[in-house]
Amino acid sequence: MIDWSILDEARLLDAERLDFPTPEPARRALDATVVAPLAHLGVLEVGGADAARFLQGQASAQVDLADGDFAPLTCFCSAKGRMLANAQLLRRSEHSYWLILSRDLVTPLAEHLGKFAPFYKTRLTPRDDIALLGLIGQEAPALAEARLDIVPPATWHQVVHDDLLVLRHPGPRPRLLLALPEARLAETWRDLSAQALPVGNAIWRLHDIQAGLAWIRAEQADAYLPQMVNWEALGGISFKKGCYTGQEVVARAHFRGQVKKRLVRAQLEGDKLPAAGSAVEDAAGKAMGDVLSAELDAYGQAEILAVLSTKEDPGPLTVEGQALKRLKLPYAIERLDPEALADKG
Q: What is the number of other CB atoms lying within 10 angstroms of the CB of residue 21?
């Protein structure tokens, strides 16, 4: 595990949440460049001569699209098409791929994939020695270029410089995700925090919410079809590849229009932060869906991503007594082929 306590003034709230004394961090992130330790994310390495072939039979992504430039979203499903984990897939070297996903799913996913690994020349390695940092802000690309000597890539693409890997994620402000050896963490943090304000990873999670991007956690595994978290609208499913575990169910739901729940973005009228899994209720107290993630925004109100029923207009909704106001997603709810995204690097 990464020792995040080496970062100056870091306060460990729990194993996956850190904070810093920077006042009003969400508000500061509107205008300033900020840097955050992404302790809630982790890396699973899939390596070996058969790594690509192995992943092709398990992941929703077309693996050959992960070419060292494009780094597509993907997911891993049960035979019933329910997501066991969603991730970003990137090629680190000729026979090595990395999956970036929720940290608490790294080991469960490795154990699940390990059932199939004996049939391939491949190995699954949780990379507890890789630290992930997030840079957010209009000046983030320039800061990365000046301090890290890299030219930041396009969204959902990657660039590698020595042992530093940089990815760009979508959001209301430019966002870069940095993956580096733990041995470089202290030095890199000092370089970046000299010009970027240190903030907790809640700010990165907030920007994920505002980007309509949900990373499922261990307690949410095996609960949703990929389309229920809008994964095909984000380019996380290739409908042009061959079979993978759960593919038949996922394809049927898409082509028959059988997705009965969808991810929505919303704001709550209050400052009470609901836990993941909290019910979204109608006026009669009937559960219409549940919260996937929640963080406080720059105005002290909770912003959430929730999976809600698409059957009908449910009328006014609440979460733990707080009125829910739907917000616009930054993308259309329609299929986006990853093959099209790959060409935009």
A: 9
